[in-house]
Automatic annotation (TrEMBL):
Signal sequence annotation: 1-20
Keyword entries, A-Z: Signal
SUPFAM superfamilies registered for this protein in UniProt: NTF2-like
Domain SnoaL-like residue range list: 34-135
Alphabetical list of InterPro entries matching this protein: NTF2-like_dom_sf, SnoaL-like
Protein's recorded name: SnoaL-like domain-containing protein
Higher taxonomy: Bacteria, Pseudomonadati, Pseudomonadota, Alphaproteobacteria, Hyphomicrobiales
């Protein structure tokens, strides 16, 4: 079974196992994430800031320059600024909520025309706290494609700049 098929099968199981969004809180949480995606779609990274909790942790898997935990709104917005520079887009496909969790499946892509492109399905699991995104965990369908894209379009600074003590 391919990764994409596994992801789709898992999403269908989640839909059948979970109640139909559970109630008003789940509906509000899904709306929050839909509104976040609408803000992201503007192409202005600052537009997502109002959706972020002060202690947010956004986890990006991979072995590339943008991978790792982003802590706090400053780091998360800086990450989105990098995505905007790479013309990265996201198209939501599916939402499900249970309690303080919202899971979405979306298509993410960029075709900047230089080097490898990226076009795959992602799942994001959001934890909502006090009407804000407190945590986000990103799951990919093709880690190798992701790593190749980000290494090509987001190279590290030369060693002297990376090793400089900015404090």
């Amino acid at each position: 079974m391919t990764r994409l098929a596994s992801l789709a099968a898992g999403a269908l199981l989640a839909v059948s196992a979970a109640s139909a969004n559970g109630g008003p809180q789940e509906d509000r949480n899904i709306q929050l994430i839909k509104d976040y995606y609408a803000a992201y779609a503007t192409g202005n990274p600052e537009a997502v800031r109002p959706f972020l909790a002060p202690d947010i942790v956004w986890r990006i898997p991979g072995h590339h320059p943008l991978a790792g935990d982003k802590r706090g709104p400053q780091e998360v917005v800086a990450f989105f600024r990098g995505l905007a520079d790479g013309k990265f887009r996201a198209e939501p496909i599916f939402f499900q909520a249970q309690g303080d969790l919202v899971v979405d499946i979306h298509r993410g892509w960029s075709n900047v025309g230089l080097g490898p492109e990226i076009d795959q399905l992602y799942a994001l699991m959001f934890r909502i706290k006090d009407g804000k995104i407190a945590e986000a965990q990103n799951f990919l369908t093709d880690m190798y494609q992701s790593d190749a894209f980000y290494w090509t379009h987001y190279p590290l600074k030369p060693l002297p700049g990376r090793l400089a003590d900015d404090r």
